[in-house]
Amino acid sequence: MQDQPLQDPARLKPRRRLAFIMALLVSGVMFGPWMMSLYQQGSRIFIIFVALMWLAVGRFFYQLLAPASRERPEATRDDKAQ
Questions:
Q1: Residue from 80, 69, 70, 78 nearest 19 by CA
Q2: What confidence tens digit (pLDDT) does each residue in 4-52 have?
Q3: CA contacts within 13 A on the Cβ side of 15
């Protein structure tokens, strides 16, 4: 089985940008109205909590949508050590 060559970083940049925008939109639809209602009520502690959740969900969607940076992870030890 042959390994596929690494993808060109210039080709990955637009895909990463698109993944970032889509993650921002998806997480914004989920958390934007909630943040606005908390802001109008003046709940500072809950705004911080929801903002952290927003960042975590946005990061999850970015990792889900973004292209892989490497083909496969490398082992931390060699096969000869066994």
A1: 69
A2: 445 677 778 888 888 888 888 888 898 989 989 999 999 889 989 999 9
A3: 13
